[in-house]
Write a structure and sequence with these properties.
Elements: E1 38-43, H1 49-52, E2 58-61, E3 67-69, E4 80-89, H2 95-98, H3 108-118, H4 125-135, E5 136-138, E6 156-158, H5 170-177
Parallel strand pairs: 5-6
Antiparallel strand pairs: 1-4, 2-3, 2-4
Protein name: Glucose-methanol-choline oxidoreductase N-terminal domain-containing protein
Domain Glucose-methanol-choline oxidoreductase N-terminal: 84-144
InterPro entries: FAD/NAD-bd_sf, GMC_OxRdtase, GMC_OxRdtase_N
Length: 189
């Protein structure tokens, strides 16, 4: 592990402090958020309209100003194409706040493909999982859950929200929050 004393980071945040907004403080209770909490970027990924039209987050603007997000085949005739939607955090805490404060490792095949394309084995899934384990300070796994692939002494503290006192559908919220999306197992990917 890299000693923390050898690292320095300058973090510059854009946006306001929205810590009084419950959608920014309760994990996974992030949608819908106020529009002022993010900037919307729209991207065209492919020159072939048929291929582009299949993107899941392909976004169009309806005449009333709202977004219609779905592949092209079902788009209303009066909806104007914007592109694939990439909201980015415009708030103290940035994308972590907009993305439900979730920490989820990419599919192992994604890391391995980057390693293959770059010719750099330090991008491999095995290497990246090792780095994740070194950086992670896991606070959410229970005694009966597998500790494989997790770290407990790192500098990135990962835990789960205490939902007591928040008005949410507790059954679905707890089901979502209690999953370990980073467990080390073939069925994860």
């Amino acid at each position: 592990m890299v000693p923390r004393t050898t690292l320095s980071v300058l973090l510059i945040e854009a946006g306001r402090d929205a810590s009084d907004d419950v959608s920014t403080t309760v994990n996974a209770l992030y949608y819908p958020q106020s529009l002022d909490l993010h900037w919307s970027f729209f991207v065209k990924h492919h020159s072939d309209a048929d291929v582009e039209g299949r993107y899941r987050l392909l976004t169009r603007t309806l005449p009333n100003g709202t977004y219609w997000i779905w592949p092209s085949a079902e788009a209303p005739a009066d909806a104007k194409l914007k592109g694939v939607w990439y909201p980015r955090g415009a708030i103290l805490g940035g994308n972590a706040i907009v993305n439900a404060m979730a920490s989820i490792l990419p599919n192992d095949a994604d890391w391995d493909k980057i390693a293959e394309l770059s010719g750099d084995s330090s991008w491999s899934a095995e290497y990246m999982r090792n780095i994740f384990g070194q950086a992670e300070r896991n606070l959410y796994l229970r005694a009966n859950e597998s500790k494989a692939g997790h770290g407990f002494n790192g500098f990135v503290q990962l835990g789960q929200e205490d939902l007591v006192g928040h008005a949410v559908d507790q059954t679905s919220a707890l089901d979502f929050l209690e999953r370990d999306a980073n467990f080390l197992g073939a069925s994860r990917d």
